[in-house]
Every structure is written in structure tokens, then in C-alpha cells.
Design brief:
Number of helices: 13
Helix content: 40-55%
Number of strands: 10
Oligomer: single chain
Largest sheet: 5 strands, mixed
Shape: globular
Strand order of the largest sheet: 3-2-1-4-5
Structural class: alpha/beta
Distance between the termini: 10 Å
Length: 288
Amino acid sequence: MKLIVDSGSTKAAWYVALPGSMSFMIRTAGINPVRDDLDAMRAVVGGARVSVESELVLGRASSLGQMLRFSHVYFYGAGCIPPYSGSLCSLLQEVFPEAEVAVESDLLGAARALCGHAEGIACILGTGANSCLYDGRDIARQTPALGWILGDEGSGAVLGRLLVSDVLKGQLPPALCTEFLERFRLTQAEVIERVYRQPQPNRFLASLVPFLADHAEDAAVHALLVGEFRRFLVRNVAAYGRRDLTVSFVGGVAWQFRSELQQALEAEGYVLGRIEKEPIRRMAEFHQ
């Protein structure tokens, strides 16, 4: 048996790869070793093992229920970079002592899910954004994401930032500005408070993106979306100098705005590979 994990900071998917059609998945809170202490990570990992055991014993694969021995654990996650990944790797080895454990970045997981064993350009567009040039096994080159203040072009946080800024500065049609403020019950003072004084402003900004989805056919919103996705390509993907490769994406923003993303790619001279909302099953295929 193999265990493949795709973890963000808020939620994680744990895919148990079993023979035939018996594979299954459970979900837990996310793990980010940059943010979480050892006790917090142990609670999530220990709970995941208990949930997997329950699934095996209670009917998913009852014949294997008493033989919970994984040959490999592949953990892909946010914040899984040295030196922070070391503590998580040790913890996983403690909880799954029979397994060979590997802890890698969420970006490498996305690349393996999107491109398999072929070369390609892999991108994440969710609350944050990232990209890499992938050689069929590992990341060959990466443009630094830099977070939502300095980078993360095309991400939910940056799209939300552009949206609220355009609303408050009157850059969108008046009817849209009014609808936005009424829908979210926000004043300028409240926006300033949420962005500059309260924790996790990136998540607050990303929470505004559904408004863009609801009005994606409006000319001004459409221009905002396509323009920002083009900016993502210019500032992140162009550096790889590989227009011969397809560009693929994972993440909720990429999935939600796949039509606008396709237009941005065509405008910048790139070919779309694939867009996956959730990459966990294709990660499992890579490790078959």
C-alpha cells in the first residue's frame, strides 16, 4: 500500500492506493510545517492514521484491515521546504515506521500531477500562486512567488486586492461597486481594518473572488481577470523561455476562471496543457 498526501495550510487529502478499485481518500485539517508546531502536526497525522485504519477495518478493504503497512508515504504540502520539512518527515516516519517517507513541496506535487513523467510548465493558482519548469521528475527552475504583497500574480489574494481597490477607487461600473459593498457589507474603514490590522489578510481578499466569478461576463471584470492572468504569465512563466512546452494549472482560481485563463495564454502565445481542480489522484498515478 502507498499513501499520497496533498496538503494545503487549511485542508489535506490523504489517498490510500490499494490494488484494483479499493483505493480511497480521507480528508483532514491541513499541515504547514512553517506555521505548525510538532504537537499540532502530530494531532493531524495521528488522526489521519486512525481514520485510515477505520476505513480499512470497516469495509473499504476489510481483509487488509489488520495489515496496515504502507510501503511508501509521499507527502506534498505547503511550507514543505528545508529546514521546516525535516520535522514533518521525522513525524511521519514515527507514525508510519514501516514506510519509506518523502516530504516534498506542493509545487512539485502539482507538477507531477499535471505533467506526469513529461517535461512541462506547472502552475498553482489558488489563494496564492506559484510556477515551475519541470523536467519530468523534479523542478528544474522556479520563479519566486514572493507572496501576495510582492508577487502571487493571478492568485485569489491578488484578484481580491485588485477588486476591492477598483471598487473603492470607483474604477468599476457604479452598479457593480454598489452591489459589491452591499453584498459584503463593507465600508472603506472596514476594508482597511481587515487588510492592514487583522491577521491573514490574504484569505480575506481571496474570499472576495466569488464576486468576480459571478460577474465574469461583465466587460470590466473580464478585463481585470484576463489582464491579471496575462501578468502572471509575463512575470512568472516567461522567464523559463520554453514556449515549446504546455502550461498546466492546479487550484480553485485556475479551475473557476479556466476560460479567462485560456484567453490569457493565447494572448501571450502559450498552449494550455491541463487544469486540475484537485490533483491528488493524478499524484497517486505518478507513484503507481
